[in-house]
Write a structure and sequence with these properties.
- By secondary structure, the chain is an alpha/beta fold.
- It is built from ten helices and seven strands.
- A seven-stranded mixed sheet has the order 3-2-1-4-5-7-6, with helices on both faces.
- Helix 2 crosses helix 3 and helix 9 runs antiparallel to helix 10.
- It is globular.
Length: 268
Amino acid sequence: MRHDPIKNDLGAFFSRSTFLRRVFYHLLDLVLLRAWYVRFELRRWAKKAPEKVHMLDAGAGFGQYTYFMSRLHKDWNILAIDNKEFIISDGNIFFRKIGKDQVLFRIGDLREFCEKDAFDLVLAADILVQVEDDDRVLRNIHASLKEGGMLLVSTLSDKTEMKWVRKSQRLTDEANVRDGYDIDHIQEKLRNAGFSRVRARYSYGKLGMLSGLFSVTIPIFLLNLTKAFFVILPFYYLVVYPFCFVLNLLDTRVPHRSGAGLIVKAYK
């Protein structure tokens, strides 16, 4: 099942105008459970952040989280790094059009990128599982953080009781070089990279995984079968999303003893 071509098609469609791109970001925030967890942690961090902030979106993709971070404070500077040129070009055009000159997209390889003591916060959302030399990336991020700065990681866990979830992850995330991380292992990696305080918790419990089946996996499967499903997709979500919304809400409100995802915070 092809995942990246579907994402690229959706991204190309919603990049036709600033209005459509904003709609795209809001839809991703609603549908993707990981966005619920990431936005919660970013809001929590922002409440205690200083007035002048430099943030890094490491592996920014279409810029969903860059856009969210830019709305937390109008004067905060954000650098978004990705290795795809069309993403960099589209991102810079969009943020210039909406008047957010404090946001810059730049092409880069996280295995090489390092700006010493430059950032108050680094976000690495669903990117570490795509990098073979993740230890090198973590060392670069640690060096790039200011003293007391925080790295926020959203990534896959290698623990889930539902075999169909693991199979779905392999099918829909073909860029990944690993299935996920053991919660203790990723904390050890971060400490070895130099981070002093590390906290990790599971996300994507059983309710969240069920929501992901209906809100992500099934639509991608149907879009792979026929592009005609693009026309039906809005009506599909009108029926399915209220159910998924409740599942997402419940999933983010309870602690999980295991799960398909991890949320990790590490401080320099």
